[in-house]
């Protein structure tokens, strides 16, 4: 007979208010990531504001509201941090209510094991199964390493969390939990969809020739990756694979079109691998109890030597701007933090090392400010911007005007290539700036 874990479950069951009593002034508290946000516990902890001081909270890609941040603008009681901004966390940063933690994602587990204190972790999980396990669900990429290094573990059972099969680290047993909290949760809502623009589609069209049958894809978040997913779904490409830190609706498009089979992968064959999933309710329904996918911690998904084992690995990420030296800024406008380092460097290194692998960074050639003025995303040289990817590890760059490969290219070759995919209205000025910096040859193409 199977062991009955319901008695142990009931012994650890308590209200959110009772559970958060364990938090002390000066503690570091982790909310993990995305749907792992502990909604009920966050509200209960915020109610303790006036009796607590200097409690530091960490999260990642968490949607709002985060009650502990909203209730204390003085930050005397609660201080919130993130290592990758969601749209909501970006707004908190703008208000001075959130601090960014730089992190390369494959180091996530090591950071928590060797360098970070976790006094209390609060994480939403799916309901316990008959074997006594709670599933981290679409939060598997980051939850396990945090929980393993926490002094106190509180799980919040969310009845809407999909159960995701995993490679390892996707579950926690009731015996490893200190407190269990239940309560009613709102169903996950489908956020505003990323609608690809005409420029997104042009960039995606430029990438299509580089994607072969049997390629494995890593797609970042945003309208351009979704555009690529939709475009590939309309082509004759077949037997594509998924190995990505972030699973989005782009992969659902590919699956529904019969393109995503994972049959040709050289590792994890037959499985679409991911760390975190963010998207529509339909995406979560597809991932739920699906033996065709496997969630892993980011220490596996994002490790460059793992990525390098996948033949025809194609990594596609986006950036904010690039300068004529090939440096890439993907996480800030000037000093304003808008996202995070994430896994861009991991996949640049890993995909470019794979047999037949390619690593792309994509952007529109221009953007408009609030007044409608047009600016180039190809800049002469960064001055104060945060560099996400160094020029020595940037390979393919794409805009709506084409694709260039900067591997092994000198400074003047990089300048020439980048100007060739810049918006035509800015090319002459960029040439002048390249000449000033002595990275333009007289024989260069104009």
From TrEMBL:
InterPro entries: AcetylCoA_hyd_C (IPR026888), AcetylCoA_hyd_C_sf (IPR038460), ActCoA_hydro (IPR046433), ActCoA_hydro_N (IPR003702), Butryl-CoA_acetate_CoA_Tfrase (IPR023990), NagB/RpiA_transferase-like (IPR037171)
Pfam annotation, one family: AcetylCoA_hydro
Class of this enzyme: transferase
Functional summary from the UniProt entry: Coenzyme A-transferase that converts butyrate to butyryl-CoA.
Residue span, Acetyl-CoA hydrolase/transferase C-terminal domain: 279-434
Known pathway: Lipid metabolism; butanoate metabolism
Protein name, entry field: Probable butyrate:acetyl-CoA coenzyme A-transferase
Listed SUPFAM superfamilies: NagB/RpiA/CoA transferase-like
Gene Ontology terms describing biological process: acetate metabolic process; acetyl-CoA metabolic process; butyrate metabolic process
The enzyme's E.C. designation: 2.8.3.-
Residues bound to CoA: 220-224, 320, 343
Active site: 245 (5-glutamyl coenzyme a thioester intermediate)
Reactions catalysed, as given in the entry: butanoate + acetyl-CoA = butanoyl-CoA + acetate
GO cellular component labels: cytoplasm
One Gene Ontology MF term: acetate CoA-transferase activity
Domain Acetyl-CoA hydrolase/transferase N-terminal: 7-184
Record's subcellular location: Cytoplasm
Keyword annotations from UniProtKB, A to Z: Cytoplasm, Fatty acid metabolism, Lipid metabolism, Transferase
Family note: Belongs to the acetyl-CoA hydrolase/transferase family.
